[in-house]
């Protein structure tokens, strides 16, 4: 693997955001990191354009994530309290500063700016030196059907409490959307591409559903490695198990690898691969996956980058 070009991370949810923070911490220059974030979870709410995954990545990179695991540390909720006093059903809870970012983003989009530009300004305001790119400037929305009810992703998670069994998953608008020029340029020039330990269907699935994205990953000369979101045979957070079951894959690193298929050169996991499920030529690196603190995030990031570097020649000739 060459020394030039960025490290590109595909991320969504807490696992991907935490690994992105680890990558930024171990790289010689945080500017070397480009995070491509899922926007299928985006929602228009309270007059704001909320981008949960790009914002989650940004808050982790800025070191300002709240102990809840979402939102800004120390944020207040006065607007939500005021809406409740007015009788509004506040099912989607946003902190005041979090809401301010979404309102400004909505204003920028209404004025004709690209989502990429609006998110770049947010990251600069937070003092982030890495780049956070939305997967697309065009709207893609994830819908989930579970227990006979179809809902947008946020409603499935919050109102429906992410209760399965899952009966369907759709990325509306994905067929008409495109990865941004910035995303494609980063992938083409990358020295390593890391798929974070995110839900492979909900968080990474919308990114890979964009026309041309899988091809861009396959065509890149950089090694593409995934970090499994399955820790000790269990899911750390979120409804990954229900979606793996719906997809007909076991809750294992092998099941995750099978979903990513031909885009992968290797996977980092804490369990051996099942050759009957995962591609036989897939490289494997065993590592401790639980990122309990900054040291754990940095250790996993360092191991993942070293593993990717070891696959450089192999990836160039795949």
TrEMBL record:
Per UniProt, the enzyme's principal EC class comes to transferase
Q: Is Amino-acid biosynthesis set as a keyword in this record? A: no
EC number in record: 2.7.8.28
Q: Which domain of life is it from?
A: Bacteria
Q: Which UniProt keywords apply?
A: Magnesium, Transferase
Instruction: Name any one GO molecular function.
Output: LPPG:FO 2-phospho-L-lactate transferase activity
Identify the Pfam families for this entry. CofD
What is the protein name for this chain? LPPG:FO 2-phospho-L-lactate transferase
Source organism (scientific name): Conexibacter arvalis
Lineage of the organism:
Bacteria, Bacillati, Actinomycetota, Thermoleophilia, Solirubrobacterales
């Amino acid at each position: 693997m060459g020394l030039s070009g960025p490290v590109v991370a595909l991320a969504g949810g807490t696992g991907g955001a935490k690994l992105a923070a680890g990558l930024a911490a171990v790289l010689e220059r945080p500017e070397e990191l480009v995070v491509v974030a899922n926007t299928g979870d985006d929602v228009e709410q309270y007059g704001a354009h909320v981008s949960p995954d790009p914002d989650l990545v940004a808050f982790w990179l800025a070191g300002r994530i709240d102990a809840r695991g979402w939102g800004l540390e120390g944020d207040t909720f006065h607007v939500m309290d005021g809406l409740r006093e007015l009788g509004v059903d506040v099912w989607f809870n946003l902190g005041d500063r979090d809401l301010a970012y979404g309102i400004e983003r909505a204003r920028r989009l209404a004025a004709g700016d690209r989502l990429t530009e609006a998110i770049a300004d947010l990251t600069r305001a937070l003092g982030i030196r890495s780049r956070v790119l939305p997967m697309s400037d065009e709207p893609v929305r994830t819908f989930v059907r579970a227990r006979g009810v179809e809902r947008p992703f946020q409603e499935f998670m919050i109102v429906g409490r992410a209760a399965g069994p899952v009966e369907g998953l759709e990325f509306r608008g994905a067929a008409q959307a495109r990865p941004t020029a910035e995303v494609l340029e980063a992938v083409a020039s990358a020295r390593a591409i890391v798929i974070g330990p995110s839900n492979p269907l909900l968080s990474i699935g919308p990114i890979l559903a964009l026309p041309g994205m899988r091809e861009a990953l396959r065509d890149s000369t950089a090694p593409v490695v995934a970090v499994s979101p399955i820790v000790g045979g269990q899911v750390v957070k979120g409804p990954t198990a229900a979606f793996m079951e719906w997809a007909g894959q076991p809750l294992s690193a092998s099941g995750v690898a099978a979903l990513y298929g031909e885009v992968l050169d290797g996977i980092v996991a804490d369990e051996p691969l099942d050759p009957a499920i995962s591609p036989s030529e897939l490289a494997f690196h065993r590592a401790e996956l639980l990122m309990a603190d900054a040291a754990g995030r940095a250790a996993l990031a360092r191991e993942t980058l070293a593993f990717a570097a070891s696959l450089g020649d192999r990836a160039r000739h795949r």
